[in-house]
Amino acid sequence: MQHSMSRAFNAGRNRLLLWQGADAGSVTFCDTPGVLPDEVALGWTLAAGAADLDGDLRPEIYFSNDFGPDRLLHNLSTLGHLKFEVLEGVKTLPGWRKASRLTSIRASS
Description:
- By secondary structure, the chain is mainly β.
- It has one domain.
- 4% of the residues lie in helices and 30% in strands.
- The protein has one helix and six strands, in the order ββαββββ.
- It has one helix at residues 38-41; strands spanning 17-22, 27-31, 45-51, 60-65, 71-75, 84-87.
- It is globular.
- The N and C termini lie far apart (49 Å).
- The mean pLDDT is 83.
């Protein structure tokens, strides 16, 4: 069971898989160990979403967790090197979330 209702970091590990290739009968991905910090990777995640929120063509990743804080990862990756920064804020709305929806709200020129 979870360590606590608000700060549980003892779930199964979240993973990021990278595309490696495909042929007529199979698709190949590789695991990326060590990219996600443990407080993100071991959260009790119910939903995840990805969207380019800052317009740099790299998708940010959002993890919606059941027991513990949700996590938004700012994508700072470069070609061949995954890197994410955990962005944190303060929860101001009461209630439980059981899904994720990301929307980019910026003016197009």
